[in-house]
Amino acid sequence: MSATAAEGWIRKNQEQNWLTRLLDWKPFLVVMCLLPAVALLMVFLTYPLGLGIWLAFTDTTIGRSGVWVGLENFEFMMEDPIFWNAVFYSVFYTAVATVGKFGLGLWLALLLNNHLPFKSFLRAIILLPWIVPTVLTAIAFWWIYNPQFSIISWVFIELGLRDSNIDFINTAWPARWSLIGANVWRGIPFVAISLLAGLQTISPSLYEAALLDGSTGWQRFRYITFPMLLPILAIVMTFSIIFTFTDFQLVYAITRGGPVNSTHLLATLAFQRGIAGGQLGEGAAIAVSMIPFLVFATLFSYFALARRKWQQGESND
Amino acid sequence: MANIITRRSILGAGAGMATLAAGGGAYAQSRVQAASGVSAPNLPIESGATLRMLRPVRFVAPDEEVFRANCARFTQQTGVQVRVDFVGWEDINQQTAVTANTGAGPDVIIGFGDAPHIYVDKLVEVSDIAEYVGRKYGGWMFVGEKYGKRHGTNNWIGLPFGGTAGPLVWRKSAVNAVGYQTPPSDLPGFLEMCKKLRQANKPAGFALGNAVGDGNGFANWLMWSHGASITDAEGAVSVNSPQTLAALNYLKELYPTFVDGGTISWGDISNNQAYAANTLFVTSNGVSLYFALKNDPATRAIADDTEHSVMPLGVANSWPSAPLTLNAMVFKHSRFPNAAKALLAFLMEQPQYEPWLDANLGYWAHPLNAYKDSAVWTSDPKIAIFRDSMNNQFWNGYKGPITVASGQANAEYVLVQMFAAVASGQSTPEAAMREADRRARRIFRR
């Protein structure tokens, strides 16, 4: 920058118009830059959520805008055994499926973390169940669990082990377990691959030191692998619980909440009441009732499993 | 500015040529008798009118071709451009709701049976054209009138276009093998036959899962054939009754005769699959099952062995099945209501309606008596039963008015789940009935 040019620039600065000055003003610039993001969040996140909560306090139906009815929808839900059944099954489904997914997923991750032939190929195909669209999984399981055409029933009958079809989804408890089975099958890859990524960040020197100390395999898992994995476990588990609790497609495609409403999750029941049944207000109330469960699950994962200072080499508070 | 009368006189002048050109030879010698001397309502078409229409997608390709050709002919004769959009079956209710709520969109929607009753405030009355085609074509059949008129009045809010009921579908060889010529039409006899079929390993099966069409159809049959109904004639909930209990106890005996694996998780497609796989021998379904079997060489033999008959009547005095009904409505927000009504009347007239009915092969049955002589009903003796679908004395929500609530009770499977709870042994008949009554009271509270 030459001296003469700088002189000229200074004079020009004094003649700036209001627009230039405005754009040079930092608070304004910050607001302007944030505005698109805020607008997107408001339009696609805050507004639908707010509308959903508002609808929960009205008696809106498809075809008629409703009036404010206060807690009426919630009062009805409290007395509705179908709603309580959905609450029970949502919690049960999430709890059992999460335990299943994490147990098997962690095991799979540990296996994949070893040196295996065709390691990359194996890791790639493990992801397959998670990559296929959920609806395709659901249709496949719908056939597997079909009361007349189940391949599992067929195999058992052909082998002479049974003489009638297996009851997968015709009565309440078998249907509940069958759906959990399908969800676990679908969810394992996500957990396994995420945990595998976590395993690979653990420094081999820790294992070497433990080996020199004469540790057993279980001790290495218990005192090195598991604690080091906890932070990523917390994140993955939070996501997994949210996905499982709000699951919709598997249940809707395989049982539609049947037999006799025994496999309704809160999400499917909300859809059934709100869209199919046309009671938007009631459906919204059921959907809103999922929020406390999700907040609790998130906080639990976050605080119970969050990163501790000792994992970074400091002492706990 | 053309109107409906001038159009018809033009048509009349060259009737033979026009019909041959448009519909082909099939209906040149139509046997449909239209009453003469019925004058059409005077509907001066608004100048510059254009129309947009929604209707459900076709069953068979010729449905769409003939429908579009009919609309094109309307354009040709009146200068009114007509755009028809074909919408998936699951989407038509939602699109109707949006159209009604926003007051924008299509002028005319052909939706399903109860839609005009739900959106009645947003619709133009169509009494003039409904009475006109009724007088001209032998009068409206029972369900046509039921779905067309606003409850308790003579005002037409919908124009039923066609309907189809669900008969008993059975394998002749199986029924004959257990000693019957045709399935008995009384309830104890029917139960007896199902027991024998199960013993012969050729079982019956009816959907008890959350299946919109088949599940509700079967539950309604159980109710109506025992004299039970979800509401009384005034629309008050009447589930809790000795008749309902009788129906539940009947199912309790009937269900163990069903196909191995049970039917409580069945969707709308399940009985079609089982029937086509020689696993199921007696069920209830619309005409689509028969045509699917007939058109596939692999299952042609099953189609040849298949018969249709009316579901056992029990105490009902007509076929206890509510036809799935197409119901056209004209919206108040339309800027061209006369053109819209003229189009609907035009489509119901014999030169348009009969080729369309024939093109549908029996998937849809007429709501106007005169069309009973259409060629389609003699094209295949096995579909003749569908001809009188619209004469049934039952509708969704029977015995009450057709309302939002009757549609909701259907969509939430209140009756289906009552029966499924008993069939699965999950509830006693009394408990299941009380639960259904509780749910129905909630739904019908307004």
From TrEMBL, chain A:
GO terms for cellular component: plasma membrane. Pfam families: BPD_transp_1. It is a multi-pass membrane protein. The chain crosses the membrane at residues 28-57, 86-112, 124-145, 223-245, 284-305. InterPro entries: MetI-like (IPR000515), MetI-like_sf (IPR035906). GO terms for biological process: transmembrane transport. It is found in: Cell membrane. Keywords: Cell membrane, Membrane, Transmembrane, Transmembrane helix, Transport. The keyword Membrane applies. Residues 87-303 form the ABC transmembrane type-1 domain. Belongs to the binding-protein-dependent transport system permease family. PANTHER family: BLR7065 PROTEIN, SPERMIDINE_PUTRESCINE TRANSPORT SYSTEM PERMEASE PROTEIN. This is Sugar ABC transporter permease.
From TrEMBL, chain B:
Signal peptide: none annotated. Coiled coil: none annotated. GO terms for cellular component: periplasmic space. Its main location: periplasm. It comes from the Bacteria. It is found in: Periplasm. PROSITE patterns: TAT. The lineage of its organism: Bacteria, Pseudomonadati, Pseudomonadota, Alphaproteobacteria, Acetobacterales. This is Extracellular solute-binding protein. It comes from Neoroseomonas marina. InterPro entries: Bact_solute-bd_prot1, SBP, TAT_signal. Gene3D superfamilies: Periplasmic binding protein-like II. PANTHER family: ABC TRANSPORTER PERIPLASMIC-BINDING PROTEIN YCJN-RELATED, ARABINOSE-BINDING PROTEIN-RELATED. Keywords: Signal, Transport. Belongs to the bacterial solute-binding protein 1 family. The keyword Hydrolase does not apply. SUPFAM superfamilies: Periplasmic binding protein-like II.
